Amino acid sequence: MKRIFVIALVLCAISVASFAQTTTANVTANVTATLTITKITDLNLGNVSQGATVTITSLTAGAATFTIQGAGSAGTTVTVTNPATLLFGAIPMTFTAQIPRYNTVNTQSSSSAFGATTGGSTTTSVGGQLFLWIGGSVTAAAAQSVGSYSGVITVSVAQP
User: Fold this and answer.
1) Domain annotation covers residue 10
2) At 146, which CATH number?
């Protein structure tokens, strides 16, 4: 009887062992660069005479300038929110945005234009850099109140 019990126990152990399986899975993680955007210069349209228009294009000195740093060779979405007006207290003056320009090197003259004033998508340099320039214009009415008008351009960037 003892012998039958030992044989049964051995057979059970063999059965359990033949049904148990083990495998492994690798664990990986990629650390990417933190995405940052830094304003270098503001868009300064300077003095505007009553009844006149002043324009600073995205290709000329005086355009707002931003530097973006993130993951290298990464798809990057740039979203630009422009003010509809500049204000002097509660007095408005219409602002017209220029189409932003971008480059993977800090060379404004050879930059490319996004398809709209609201920005678009592009790719950062191998080192993760992208440079952005934004211009605009204002036209002061003949009776526009004299004063210092201002507004805010907001730029957001995202990478997958």
Assistant:
1) no
2) 2.60.40
pLDDT digits (tens, 9 = 90+) for 15-47: 555 688 999 999 999 888 899 999 999 999 999
Residues contacting residue 108 through CB under 8 Å, at least 6 positions apart = 59, 63, 65, 101, 131, 133
In the chain, the number of structural domains is 1
How confident is the model over 48-104, as pLDDT tens digits? 999 999 999 999 999 999 999 999 999 999 999 999 999 999 999 999 999 999 999
Please report whether residue 146 resides in a domain.
yes
> How far from 62 is each of 2, 90, 160, CA to CA, in Å?
98, 26, 31
